[in-house]
Amino acid sequence: MRIAVCPGSFDPVTNGHKDIIYRASKLFDRVVVSVTVNVMKNPSFTVVERIQMIEKATSGLGNVVIDVCDGLLADYVKRIGACAIIKGLRAVSDFEYEFQMALANKTLYDGAETLFLTTSSENMYLSSSLVKQIGAYGGDISPFVPECILEDIKRRIVEIYKPIN
Ligand code: PNS
């Protein structure tokens, strides 16, 4: 069985993430969406909230499971027997950081390849931070996140940021 990992903070999951997960699910027998606990970031949503939102956004995809990775991604990939790490590549600005991580992960564990899927053109500029920023200013985030979790995200943004407008 060919297993791929889609790692990320997913804080929160966006249409861009959903697109990559859907496309990866067509290429692999199983896709493990791994919510990574990034010690360098201060997330807005709890791990449980992020998992619940990804579950809603990917419901109906029989070969997708959601999990948590709270250590090094390379160790996690090895432990679950995955052969690929799937990343979405947006603009050139993503490239250097992603290239660095791909090489580091390959050095740490040689048994998996990092594969980049070109993001769909409508998601080229999209990121979780952009969604939170627009939401914090009371803007409409509905074009950017799966409809089934729109209200969950809005509710949380109101709690956290008490919209500026
Ligand atoms: O969605 P993000 O925050 O851009 O995803 C980055 C992520 C989670 C993939 C990266 O931070 C990661 O792999 N974290 C796990 C810890 C780790 O292995 N760090 C070294 C990566 S070379």
Descriptive account of the structure:
This protein is α/β, with parallel strands linked by helices. The chain has one domain (3-123): Rossmann fold (3-Layer(aba) Sandwich). It is 42% helix and 19% strand. The protein has six helices and five strands; from the N terminus they run βαβαβαβαβαα. It has helices spanning 15-27, 47-57, 73-80, 92-108, 128-136, 150-161; strands at residues 3-8, 30-36, 64-69, 84-89, 113-118. The protein has a five-stranded parallel β-sheet, sandwiched between helices. The radius of gyration is 16 Å and the shape is globular. 4'-phosphopantetheine (PNS) binds at residues 7-9, 36, 38, 72-73, 101, 104-105.
In the CATH scheme, the class would be Alpha Beta
What is the percent of helical residues? 40-55%
Helix and strand composition category: alpha/beta
Q: What would CATH call the homologous superfamily?
A: HUPs
The end-to-end span amounts to 50 Å
Task: Label the overall shape.
Answer: globular
CATH fold-level label: Rossmann fold
Number of beta strands: 5
User: In what range is the share of β-strand residues?
Assistant: 15-25%
Order of helices and strands: EHEHEHEHEHH
Nearest-angstrom radius of gyration?
16 Å
Tally of DSSP helical segments = 6
| Distinct small molecules bound, one entry per kind | 4'-phosphopantetheine
